Amino acid sequence: MKYQFSFRNISQKFTRPVITNHGVWEIRESVIIRLIDIKGKISWGEIAPISWFGSETLEEALDFCHQLPREITSEIIFEIILKIPDKLPACQFGFESALENLQENHESLNYHHLNFSGLLPAGKAALNQWQNLWKQGYKTFKWKIGVNDITEELAILNLLIDQLPESAKLRLDANGGLDDNAAKLWLEKCDNFPNKIEFIEQPLPVDKFSEMLELSNYYSTKIALDESVATLQQLENCYQQGWRSIFVIKPGIVGSPSRLRKFCQQHQIDVVFSSVFETAIGRQAALKLAAELSSNNRAVGFGINHYFTGSIPNV
Ligand SMILES: O=C(O)CCC(=O)c1ccccc1C(=O)O
Ligand SMILES: [Mg+2]
């Protein structure tokens, strides 16, 4: 049995640039891969790296694809996929999920029971955007912080909390952009609204693990690690070091789906699944994992497909 392998680099413009503590993100590039088996059955996969988040770069992913043969026998395809190095986590996800797609029928796919979190724009733009998402059924929102001056952001948070309906929940995502003092200010503030704030995501940079562990023991507002657990190795590491609060998992860059399943089944961790702004191809594979492995009924950070202008290009 033989598989035909091909791939293509695609790029899409965000409807509105994504602004985080890391800067302004305007264009999403990824690699779409295609496997065709001998019967002509086609399966897609997506490699959507975010190098500033700890995955490989797009160039490294493309280099990996370039060195693969265009025709792969079934004996070696599993070999290849199992041997993708850990420094290429987005490739591990793309290839393994493409192969899984070939092996199963799609009717088993059902993630309609999941709740979704909607992503608000940073800054005061959040104040006139949540209504739109609320109308579409979102009850959980995520707002980026650590982007503007903290006094200004804390004032916007007050307004946002006043405006949001009783049952709405809010997550704050600092993308590692706070210092110790700012993190404490935010956590103190959030402790005053225990029914409104679900958690603060990645308050401090990745190298400040023990400080975040300390903060999570001191404040009642939950802390979710995101950048700190971008890949499976990091996830395993933070778990070993005693993290028992929330873990954000971005399947698109975390690495091998089968290894992720194993980890989640072995350890009862509190997880939030989240997108890497992938196309419908990566999204479907990621949501499948979210449906299987989500815990505590936490909303998944996958908004709707309104991130990009235009439709998904032909591949
Ligand atoms: O998690 C979500 O709710 C949306 C996705 C998201 O915020 C995100 C998307 C791409 C890269 C980084 C992040 C992030 O959580 O920091
Ligand atoms: Mg985050």
TrEMBL record:
The keyword Transmembrane helix does not apply. Mg(2+) binds at D173, E201, D226. It holds the Pfam family MR_MLE_C. It comes from the Bacteria. It catalyses: (1R,6R)-6-hydroxy-2-succinyl-cyclohexa-2,4-diene-1-carboxylate = 2-succinylbenzoate + H2O. Signal peptide: none annotated. Its EC number is 4.2.1.113. Gene3D superfamilies: Enolase-like C-terminal domain, Enolase-like, N-terminal domain. Keywords: Lyase, Magnesium, Metal-binding. It is an enzyme of class 4 (lyase). SMART domains: MR_MLE. The active site is at K144 (proton donor), K250 (proton acceptor). Pathway: Quinol/quinone metabolism; 1,4-dihydroxy-2-naphthoate biosynthesis; 1,4-dihydroxy-2-naphthoate from chorismate: step 4/7; Cofactor biosynthesis; phylloquinone biosynthesis. Residues 123-222 form the Mandelate racemase/muconate lactonizing enzyme C-terminal domain. InterPro entries: Enolase-like_C_sf (IPR036849), Enolase-like_N (IPR029017), Enolase_C-like (IPR029065), Mandelate_racemase_C (IPR013342), OSB_synthase_MenC1 (IPR010196). Its cofactor is a divalent metal cation. CDD domains: OSBS. One of its GO terms (molecular function) is O-succinylbenzoate synthase activity. Converts 2-succinyl-6-hydroxy-2,4-cyclohexadiene-1-carboxylate (SHCHC) to 2-succinylbenzoate (OSB). Belongs to the mandelate racemase/muconate lactonizing enzyme family. MenC type 1 subfamily. PANTHER family: O-SUCCINYLBENZOATE SYNTHASE-RELATED (PTHR48073). This is o-succinylbenzoate synthase. It comes from Sphaerospermopsis aphanizomenoides LEGE 00250.
